[in-house]
Amino acid sequence: MLAHTSPVASRQDALDLLLQRMRQAGDFPALSEAIATINQIAASDKESVNKLSNSILKDFSLTNKLLKLANTAFYSRVGGGSITTVSRAVVMLGFDTVRSIALSLLLFDSMENRAHARQLKEEFVKSLFAGMLARDLAATAHVKDAEEAFICAMFHNLGRTLAMFYFPKEMEEVARLMQSQGYAESKAAVQVLGLSFEALGIGVAENWGFPSAIVDSMDKLPPGKISKGAGNTDRMRLLAGYSNELCEIITHTPEKDRGKALAQLGGRFGDSLPVSERRLAAQIEKSLCDITQFASVVGVNLQQSAFARHASSWADSDGATTAETATGDDGNALAQSVLREPPPAVALQPDRLEQSAHRSPEEIQSILTAGLHDIGNALVDDKSTPDDVVRMILEVVYTGMGFGHVLFCLRDTRHNTLCGKIGFGDGVEELVRAFHFPLLDRLDVFHVALKNNADILITDIDDPKIATRIPGWYRQHVTARTFVILPVLVKGKPVGLFYADSPNAGDIAIAEKELALLKALRNQAVLAIRQRL
Known about the structure:
By secondary structure, the protein is an alpha+beta fold. The chain contains 27 helices and 6 strands. It is elongated, with a radius of gyration of 26 Å.
């Protein structure tokens, strides 16, 4: 094991060694980059919604699963339902909720194809349950942000989960020491890995750019009675600890000892988080119901989960009644049936796992049509701004048509320029900056499109018939050789345009029905912009 083959002088040395070994695993660098990117976006308030959507859309599997979750019954209670774009999900569910879903899916997807996936999925179910429970108890614990409470509780045991991912042999040695020597888990982990699971989780969380409040919540609570947290960070740590301790009690406590175990938990947290046994049964029931819907999307059969079976038996009929009253639906029935019949998978058509290059025209039209309906709802609700609507339109066009980039440009009337605002695609931030040019009386394709309200498709920028109409700034900053322009006019005056491109000449071909749907989407942008004028 690690401690025997590679002695370490300090905890930091051990952490560095473990991180080095994890980076050599094929999936860890990608997982790290994805989580770090989402954390970096969350820390910035400038264009965070667009960046989060763009980051998620790069992963077809993540996008598909996230949208399926957004359309489950659980999220329909808080604004979800018929959602076809990540941008719409952010508007309806909130930035923090979409971020929480994305982080949980990233963690799950990384373990799905591991050799010991069943054990890892069991650990994930426990972590997800703890997150759901913490989210529901956030108000009781006086925690300001319920979604951050979810993340804190779900990642509370990150170190142990990562050790199970990447060091299965070392984990076997930890278990052997605990059984043969009677070591506590933390002592066995230090002897085998060179540091505790807690220290490993904190080190990786810092490496991934989690905010300090979430990193601090990974600190294990001291033994004995827990006093009230002085600040929000302390209360989040307390709630994360409580939720995960309850998971361990559910996992390891025989039925005859449940009353004693709950009394001990109540005595430990009674001053800081007073939750009656009756309410706790209701919360267990509700959290199990929430997990059931998540499991249906990611393909986890809770019938095979020992933890789910234990949790189901902890939710008594009185608690179920309380849960039903609290949630206002019949979710308890769903949770009670989880061990008898797997819930039906939630489906979106067409499946976003299929890249647009392989879709039939009917599938492309289906995505554009669904987007039209979704954006129509956005135009009449109170949550969506004109910028939100334009962002949704761009996403529908990007995912439906399979363009390399899509972009919206808006006219600056003070300086008589056209400026890139938002877009989707790899490196789109640079493209947005490149689209900044004066609206003078020129004969290039952009000015012609705006002046004549003409939809223009350039199949090859180097075609001798059109080459002279491609402006110099475009050739200098843009590598795409084919693009389409859809101008946006309000009351007969050009106010902006939609731009979409593809890298190779001849890549873009737009069928008549698809063009009609693109024009309809453009008309929705006109309606949104009129609302702002």
